[in-house]
Amino acid sequence: MILFNLVELLKYRNVSSKLFEGSVNTTEVDNKDDPIEIGPFKEATFFLSCTAFAGTTLNVKIYTKDPAADVWHQIAAFTELSDVGTEMEAVAANLGDKMAYVITPVGAGVKTLTLSANFKIM
User: Fold this and answer.
1) What are the structural domain ranges in the chain?
2) CA-CA distance, 89 to 97, in Å (whole number)?
3) Which of 12, 21, 13, 14 is nearest to 47 (CA)?
4) What's the whole-model pTM score?
5) Is the domain 6-120 a CATH 2.60.120.380 member?
6) N or C: which end of the chain has fewer CB within 10 A?
């Protein structure tokens, strides 16, 4: 998925995007096979909102890819969720060219959440 082309970026300077919206139960959600190409964006603020929670816990982590070594590196992690709520994580620099998220439910139970981000060029 590509967020915007260069002409659009020059117009906006920052972009808000919904990365994931839905429910998870026992299966991990991982978009590393279809990462988000973030190109010239250098900063981001990630937002997690959990509106329904049943079961044990949930982990959400954000990764960037090292293009030379073809390895993913964690750049942000939300506090392990055990109830409904919201959280914000800021990444001040070094987003890389590609970004992915991994949502890992621990134990059974449906969790409904939204993961979104505000990307900035500078």
Assistant:
1) 6-120
2) 19
3) 21
4) 0.85
5) yes
6) C
